[in-house]
């Protein structure tokens, strides 16, 4: 039989070493749980006005995430915003309990969504599609949205942010709503008074950071999702005009970039990527160097054309 005489001394040495480390180091803190409830917005859609561009006013029951983190309504651009990756959402078997024949039983709405154009990319692709919202409500009566896709339609490649201002500036009750369809949204609550960070609540995951510009160009809100992809939106400081809250670019962890107008400057993106005075997309570029041109007739989107080139630059 073997005898391990050094065992006790080894245990004592390890204990002493750990004790020395503990004495000289800051105490460990447990990270916040991904899933957090914001009771203020749990049963109430807080914004008092529709989304700025596509004029969407969803029901609180159309929240895209369940409080267990399930992604109940998919994100056409692939945003990983569900707090629980093991709950799949619309295509998952759990969805059968609330969906029957295409009708959402909790809202009575027939779910209509489709993809019209998507091309392969290494990173985030541009997904040109649409969803329909027939049961929008403005707090007192039925709301019919009137955006560039037509009444009650939403262009899924142009998600937008809606900012709910609490009692004061930079108040901890402020909430940013990510509206990513005519019938779906997610919520991000300011983490503390005077903070520029917002965290996902009521089933949503990810963090939004606000970066002010301080000059004549728009600042940004950047959502970092569960995969580490960063989704940039123009902020609402006034410099963005009608494009306030609109999607600007997406950058994945390999630096593949999908962007509107210009990938580096919000000012140039506003000038070269958005329809002047309207806020809707005009020129978008993906990581395969494709150019997408959006054409409108009487303020309604009528064509999206994808182009490639054999040389030179898109600028000429």
The sequence of SSEs as H and E is: HHEEEEEEEEEEEEEEEEEHEEE
What's the Cα radius of gyration? 23 Å
Mean pLDDT: 89
Helix content: under 10%
Give the number of domains. Answer: 1
Portion in strands:
25-35%
Number of continuous helical runs: 3
| Shape verdict | globular
Most strands sheet: 12 strands, antiparallel
Total strands: the figure is 20
Strand numbers in spatial order across the main sheet = 9-10-11-12-13-14-15-16-17-18-19-20
Contiguous uncertain segments of 5+ residues? 1-24
Describe this structure in words.
The structure is a single chain. The chain has 316 residues and is mainly beta. The protein has one domain. It is 9% helix and 28% strand. The protein has three helices and 20 strands. The protein has helices spanning 7-24, 39-42, 266-273, and strands at residues 99-100, 103-104, 109-110, 112-117, 128-132, 146-147, 150-151, 153-155, 160-164, 175-181, 184-190, 197-201, 207-211, 220-224, 230-234, 247-251, 257-260, 283-285, 291-297, 300-307. The longest helix has 18 residues, at 7-24. It is globular, with a radius of gyration of 23 Å. It starts with 6 loop residues before the first helix and ends in a 9-residue tail after the last strand. The model is unreliable at 1-24 (pLDDT under 50).
């Amino acid at each position: 039989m073997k005898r391990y005489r050094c065992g006790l001394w080894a245990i004592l040495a390890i204990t002493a070493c750990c004790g020395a480390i503990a004495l000289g180091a800051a105490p460990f803190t447990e990270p916040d749980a991904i899933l957090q409830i914001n009771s203020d917005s749990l049963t109430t859609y807080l914004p008092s006005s529709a989304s700025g561009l596509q004029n969407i006013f969803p029901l609180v029951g159309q929240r895209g995430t369940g409080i267990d983190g399930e992604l109940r309504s998919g994100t056409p651009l692939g945003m990983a915003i569900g707090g629980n990756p093991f709950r799949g959402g619309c295509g998952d078997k759990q969805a059968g309990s609330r969906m029957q024949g295409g009708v959402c039983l909790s809202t009575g709405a027939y779910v209509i969504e489709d993809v019209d154009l998507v091309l392969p990319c290494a990173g985030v692709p541009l997904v040109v599609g649409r969803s329909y919202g027939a049961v929008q409500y403005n707090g007192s009566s039925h709301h019919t949205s009137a955006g560039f896709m037509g009444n009650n339609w939403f262009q899924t490649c142009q998600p937008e942010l809606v900012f709910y201002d609490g009692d004061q500036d930079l108040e901890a009750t402020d909430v940013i709503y990510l509206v990513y369809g005519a019938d779906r949204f997610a919520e991000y609550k300011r983490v503390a008074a005077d903070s520029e960070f917002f965290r996902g609540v009521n089933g949503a995951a990810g963090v939004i950071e606000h970066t002010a510009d301080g000059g004549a160009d728009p600042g940004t809100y950047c959502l970092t999702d569960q995969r580490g992809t960063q989704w940039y939106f123009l902020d609402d400081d006034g410099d963005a005009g009608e494009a306030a809250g609109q999607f600007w670019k997406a950058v994945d962890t390999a630096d593949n970039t999908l962007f509107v107008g210009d990938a580096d400057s919000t000012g140039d993106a506003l000038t070269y990527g958005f329809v002047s005075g309207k806020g809707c997309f005009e020129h978008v570029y993906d990581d395969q160097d494709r150019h997408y041109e959006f054409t409108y007739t009487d303020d309604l989107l009528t064509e999206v054309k994808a182009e490639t080139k054999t040389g030179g630059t898109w600028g000429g």
